[in-house]
């Protein structure tokens, strides 16, 4: 039905984790090239290793391009006239590489998760402790539920699959309703919250609090599904409950300096709730094990040290730049302005004292045309750009870094709690909600508020999570219960060109931002969701059938 070889996932894709090695933690394993399911699940180490690919390789097709294109391009926090521009223009195409990449990646995650669940139940040796078996199934169901949450918010109704082998022969498999999918998501991640441990069995592994945090996001989103304008209070209460459970457990903390969140040396920091783990392998990283974001987003090869760094015309939208308040420290950590300097990123430039020679210095973002112009026409992307090998203990190659990709940070849990407490009210001065909301703001360098509205929270999420692939899903969440406002938000985002003029060429402290050519794009109900990949529609005509409720066991 889908362009995915599920037989390979049952016994082959699992090996991806064995081929992605790094210096430490659970991805550090010697490569094996001849194992089968029935031979493999015999020890605690093997069972845990079976879920390792769920933290990296199976996400590659999404993380490589689609996370930016769909998550930020459609959401209005990323602009480019040449890269993922169909998403930027809200005209996503069924033949677009990133559309197919996202679809494939999410179903790859589901396929791998199903393989782990089934194989642990069938093949795990009696000597493997029950808590380890449950741990593996908890991780698998967490990632399966998360993948379905992305699918349903990106494409709308999709088929729910619990057993990969059935669809090899079952031609009746069809799409399931949005309500069914969200129930499936909640059940999966709630299961994970019950069986995962309070502390990670290995660094960067999921815990019960990671699952509870993700449950808070899922309940907040589901609260609007089919609600006809007013979000369901029961789901809002559940979102607040799970967010508060994580907060009370003191399992995570805000990192004091926002910019430090995106340094490779801080992978697995105390704010990380859940993250994808990418690896460096001495220049021989297996394709799909690395984080490629820097290659596409860095504005020059002088930053990366290799032939990549293709992000010269990528940047923030004008709408995004207008969202930042004066003094917000998160802007510099997310987008580069002319006059910004980054002491922890080295760049290679021409040596003014030695014609024809190069020199290295801390990164200084200059104005356009090598400084000939007084402005810069892009607020280039900074987030997930980590610099050259010498800036990262040597662990950078062409199209490869090992900076983790956040799936959820503690800051989001605090904002979820505030929004869930606000609920359907116009505003709130609830002390606990304000404390959570303001903790995020104050860390960002902007003043605390004495009361908050939905619009306050929406804007706060926008600046806090920009270029982390979440902007579109905030719009999708809104669209469930207030489609008119969601479409209005999108249509009012200026995605045109601009100029940024610094007050000084180096270490600027203020900037003038001028709109050059405003550009607005519209989307309607018929085009709100990303279209199914054309190749999948040709292979799976059932995708055209009316969605049906899922029959839960």
Topology:
Blueprint: H1 6-11, H2 16-19, H3 37-40, H4 44-50, H5 60-74, H6 85-88, H7 97-123, H8 130-155, H9 178-195, H10 208-222, H11 233-249, E1 272-276, H12 293-297, H13 301-304, H14 318-323, H15 330-334, E2 335-336, E3 341-350, E4 358-364, E5 380-381, E6 405-409, H16 410-422, E7 427-428, H17 431-444, E8 452-453, H18 454-465, H19 471-481, H20 483-491, E9 497-502, E10 511-517, H21 534-539
Antiparallel strand pairs: 1-6, 2-5, 3-4, 7-8, 9-10
Domain RagB/SusD: 270-547
InterPro entries: SusD-like_N, SusD_RagB_dom, TPR-like_helical_dom_sf
Domain SusD-like N-terminal: 81-220
Task: Tag the structure with descriptive keywords.
single chain; 553 residues; mainly alpha; Serine Threonine Protein Phosphatase 5, Tetratricopeptide repeat; two-stranded antiparallel sheet; 21 helices; disordered N terminus; membrane; RagB/SusD family nutrient uptake outer membrane protein; cell outer membrane; TPR-like_helical_dom_sf; signal
Major sheet summary line = 2 strands, antiparallel
Name of the top-level CATH class of the largest domain: Mainly Alpha
Helix content: 40-55%
The beta-strand count equals 10
Number of domains: 2
Would you give an account of this structure?
The chain is mainly alpha-helical and 553 residues long. The chain has 2 domains: 44-232 and 528-544, Alpha Horseshoe (Serine Threonine Protein Phosphatase 5, Tetratricopeptide repeat), CATH 1.25.40.390; 292-523, Serine Threonine Protein Phosphatase 5, Tetratricopeptide repeat. The chain has helices at 6-11, 16-19, 37-40, 44-50, 60-74, 85-88, 97-123, 130-155, 178-195, 208-222, 233-249, 293-297, 301-304, 318-323, 330-334, 410-422, 431-444, 454-465, 471-481, 483-491, 534-539, and strands at 272-276, 335-336, 341-350, 358-364, 380-381, 405-409, 427-428, 452-453, 497-502, 511-517. The strands form 5 sheets. It has a two-stranded antiparallel sheet with strand order 1-6. Strands 2-5 form a two-stranded antiparallel ribbon. A two-stranded antiparallel ribbon has the order 3-4. A hairpin with an 8-residue loop joins strand 9 and strand 10.
């Amino acid at each position: 039905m889908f362009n995915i070889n599920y037989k390979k996932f049952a016994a082959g894709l699992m090996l991806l984790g064995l081929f992605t090695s790094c210096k430490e933690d659970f991805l550090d394993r010697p490569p094996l090239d001849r194992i089968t399911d029935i031979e493999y699940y015999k020890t605690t180490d093997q069972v845990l290793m079976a879920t390792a690919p769920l933290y990296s390789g199976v996400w590659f097709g999404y993380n490589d391009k689609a996370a930016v294109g769909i998550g930020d391009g459609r959401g209005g926090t990323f602009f480019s006239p040449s890269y993922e521009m169909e998403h930027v223009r809200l005209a996503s195409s069924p033949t677009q590489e990133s559309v197919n990449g996202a679809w494939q990646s999410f179903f790859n995650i589901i396929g791998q998760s199903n393989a782990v669940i089934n194989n642990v139940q069938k093949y795990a040796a009696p000597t493997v402790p029950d808590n380890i078996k449950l741990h593996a199934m908890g991780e698998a169901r967490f990632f399966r539920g998360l993948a379905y949450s992305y699918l349903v918010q990106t494409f709308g109704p999709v088929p729910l699959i619990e057993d990969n082998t059935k669809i090899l022969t079952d031609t009746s498999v069809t799409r399931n309703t949005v309500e069914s999918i969200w129930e499936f998501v909640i059940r999966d991640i709630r299961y994970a919250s019950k069986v995962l441990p309070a502390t990670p069995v290995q660094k960067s592994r999921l815990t019960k609090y990671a699952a509870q945090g993700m449950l808070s996001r899922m309940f907040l989103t589901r609260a609007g599904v089919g609600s006809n304008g007013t979000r369901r209070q029961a789901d809002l209460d559940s979102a607040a409950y799970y967010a508060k459970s994580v907060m009370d457990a003191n399992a995570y903390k805000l990192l004091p300096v926002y910019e430090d969140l995106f340094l490779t040396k801080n992978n697995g920091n105390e704010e990380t709730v859940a993250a994808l783990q990418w690896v460096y392998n001495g220049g021989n990283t297996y394709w799909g094990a690395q984080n490629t974001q820097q290659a596409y987003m860095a504005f020059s090869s002088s930053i990366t040290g290799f032939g990549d760094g293709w992000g010269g015309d990528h940047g923030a939208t004008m709408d995004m730049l207008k969202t930042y308040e004066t003094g917000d420290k998160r802007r510099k950590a997310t987008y580069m302005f002319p006059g910004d300097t980054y002491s922890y990123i080295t760049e290679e430039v021409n040596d003014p004292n030695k014609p024809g020679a190069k020199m290295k210095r801390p990164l200084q973002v200059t104005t356009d045309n090598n400084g000939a112009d007084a402005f810069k026409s892009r607020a280039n992307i900074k987030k997930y750009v980590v610099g050259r090998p010498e800036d990262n203990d040597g662990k950078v190659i062409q199209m490869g870094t090992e900076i983790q990709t956040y799936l959820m940070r503690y800051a989001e849990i605090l904002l979820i709690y505030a929004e869930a407490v606000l609920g359907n009210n116009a505003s709130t001065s609830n002390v606990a909600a304000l404390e959570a909301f303001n903790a995020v703001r104050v860390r960002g360098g902007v003043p605390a508020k004495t009361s908050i509205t939905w619009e306050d929270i929406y804007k706060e999420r926008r600046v806090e999570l920009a270029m982390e692939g979440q902007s579109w899903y905030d719009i999708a969440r809104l669209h469930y219960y207030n489609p008119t406002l969601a479409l209005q938000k999108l249509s009012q985002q200026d995605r045109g060109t601009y100029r940024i003029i610094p007050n000084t060429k180096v270490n600027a402290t203020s900037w003038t931002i001028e709109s050059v050519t405003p550009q607005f794009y519209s989307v309607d109900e018929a085009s709100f969701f990303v279209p199914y990949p054309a190749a999948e529609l040709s292979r799976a005509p059932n995708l055209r059938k009316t969605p049906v409720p899922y029959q839960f066991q």
